[in-house]
Records
---
Amino acid sequence: MKTTIDNNLDAKVRIARLLTLGSYAALLGLLSAWYLWLAPAPGDRPWVVWLWHLVPLLAFAPSVILGNPRPHAWLCFVLLLFFIEAVLAATHPATFGLGLSYAILVSVLFAAAMYYARWKSQLLRRAQQH
């Protein structure tokens, strides 16, 4: 029989997982919309800028989908670079709205992935002890 602490940890892991998956998908969608339709990079190949942003994030897709906790922690390190770009975009008047939504999505994804990695690791350790 599970204890109350294990039930609380299960609930936290589920919420963090849902937030991670949702914000991850939303961030991929926002970057795709931004760099392909809303404000594409000038020139003939805006998809290059789009790929430059999406490839690092898509590298974590299998791990995020499978729910492995360690790659979620590594995703947080990569998200720090995206956060810097998002804050810079939010300070520019032409991209304030997109930059602000970008910064919020990156922040939510960072927090959710960090908590998921922590709580899932704790849950796995407790399962090994029993």
---
Amino acid sequence: MSTVTTLRRILKDNHTIAVVGLSADWYRPSYFAAKYMQEHGFRIIPVNPKYTEILGERCYPDLTSIPDKVDIVDVFRKSEDCAPIAKEAAAIGAKALWLQIGVMNDEARQIAEQAGMDFVQNRCVKIEYARLFGGLSWFGVNTRIISARRPV
């Protein structure tokens, strides 16, 4: 499991995120997470063969089609789809492979580690960023919406 120190370093030092499986539907978790990260200064590169553009960014069919440098590959796909994605992430020189909540794959972990990438699984990049860099206070905490005190 990734430590807080590792998660903080990954999110502090890397600013370009290729989101594999990003949906253009605003109500999907991938869209919500990517939009949040984009609004917090990260460059989002959508990866989904169904679309040409998401969140104002050109969408690519796969990781190897991206002409720019990618720091983090954030995966919103089924666990069994992750090994080929890990191979593509290694091929493009990504620094980290991040599998979202509920997504776990030991083969992808081995591929990432052999390529020298950081590896995170079963965690949400948006939740971890908010938790580690203070964004949770904007969503109900410290707003007096949630309180341990009894209402008067």
